[in-house]
Amino acid sequence: MTPGPGGAAILRRSIQVTCSASVGFYTFLYGLHQPVAALYALFTPIALGLLSTIPGTGRQQAWITLRTLPFGVVFVALGTALAVSTAAAVTGMLIVGFLLSFTVVAGPRTAGPAPGLQLLYILACFPPYAPQTLGARLTGVAVGVVLLCLCQVFVLSGPPATSYRIVLADALETAAAAAVHPARVSVARLRDLSEGMRLSQVSPGERPTGPGRRDRALAQAGAAVRRVLDQLASRSTTSAPPGTTPRTDRSSAALRERVARTCEDTAAALRAGERPPTADALDRAIRQFQAERIRRAVDQGEPGADPDVLRRQAAELTLAESTWIAVTAVGVSTAERGTSPLRPRELFWYADLPTTQLWARRIVGNATHRSVWFQNAVRVACGLALARLVAGTLDLTHGFWVLLTVLTLGRTTVGATWRAVRQALIGNLVGAVAAGALLIALGRHLDAYAVLLVPGMLLAFALGPRLGIAYAQGLFTLVVTLAFAQITPTSWRLSEARIVDVVTGSLIGLLCGLLAWPAGARKEVRRTMAGLLRSCGTLVPATVEALLAPSTAPSPPATLPTLRHLRLAESAYAQFRSEPPTAWEGAQADWHGVLVVAYHTVLGAQRLPCFEVPLADVPPDACAWVRGTAAELTTDADRIATYFTTDERPVPGRSPAGPPLPEHHPALPTLIDLEVWLTAIDHQLARIEDSVGSKA
To answer: Contact at 8 Å (CB) between 671 and 618?
Structure first.
């Protein structure tokens, strides 16, 4: 689970929202005598600064907030027009609710303001139907957005976040040092850097999670750099392997030096904001190294024909290939579309596609009931539409609070929703009692409410997120009471209306939680992981057949279907890990291990047919071992996937023995590399089987 904002960030955000909301509210209400504009100038900073989670700090947040202004204007205008009838408002709520909730597929920079835009539409679509106030509403929204942007830039803007390019540069510099001087970089340092590159550890505003070419390339580069760090950490010795000649050691050392120089040059370009050098020199070094391996495997008396030497060289080759992928992906992130041909195309399928097509692929790929993002969007949209129908039909006073309750208290599981609702009801009850007593005591003394509003907002926005849902709801009840008491004559019945609306919204939220995927991602993670394993199972024999084909330039198998399964599984796993564990969730498997299998399988399927020589004229027994092992891995993957969907505990399969290796054959290095790849998949599948019955 991604940690929430710290105490300093919460305080900073509360001060920014309080300043922007109070300036706009007081200016319009007391200076210009425009209560409608004052209401929207108050709620716009609250919606975009408090209810939304806009990533970044300072200017980043201000820029994202400013870009939401056109959308805020559209949604307020649309809500004002659709308030003409309950049916129109409900239909609009269903569509707008789904579209805004589904923006999560575009990443945190795009999806961050979505809850705030939801609130602006909710506020505008409620009666009375007053199109004549549209100008005042839009003015309040515009002023609220501008004031919030100014506060985000000039009021406690906070320290700048470390960009993902700098994170990559740090990792590449460390990798360069570890490649040529392993003793100078500890294994713990490499592991820590690898862990720090996980997207959950990166500032949300810097995460490359968008569907565009730049974000896809940076994400691919990050994954490749993590593999480089992990491979360097796993290397146990820096001396020449036993039984090798100095020439073999020099060949490996030369390749490592090329890897180090490539990493250093790329890191320097990333820090300078320049386009990095191409990886052509590293590509040539990889091919020369592989050609030398093949020559030594054929020549009699060469130590390179030793399988143990070839296996150790395979690790060097894999390290260089991971570096090549990382550097090439960094280049794609900075280059114009179609500026240079990339090989292999399957590795960088997105490089020449237009942005619109990349967005379409991301949206279509998640437009399925198996996507947790799609499920959550449907759940939120149905809950908001039902809440708008109930509030409009029953003509509830301040009925938008019903929808606000659904929006803020809805969770991905019914259990988590009930816990949130239970705390919110307690907090609102206490807050309503306090607000009622305050209204009775102060009466129509507007100056008293005006004085109390600013410290009330500051306390509510600063302490609520820190103390929990009950405190946040109770304090927010006091804030809305202080605000509405200045706009319109108000009595203690405002607190009563608040309680009724919150209870109604809570019941609707619980009902949606019961009817729409009540278990959250628990079942979906099992389905998507099963589909991912089956897809990997079919990819293994396809890769083997590509290498066994008589062609001198084998084509890699199609990996896009597996990548689509991987995207769905990653989103389901991310939501699963963010949900609170409960006793009824039962036994789980090593879900992260399944993702590791997928990464390893896809990488091998993409790189082996492109960097290796085909297994031409390999003896029949070696071909039979390759095909038989691939078939066994397919069976193992399907057996584990069946357990995920049926709870039928898998029977562990047998680990494949090593292949019969032909002596002095040009395909011997490829056969060894294929053996290493298949064995790694088998070991990881065995670990997943062993994990069955333990917590994920």
So the answer is: yes
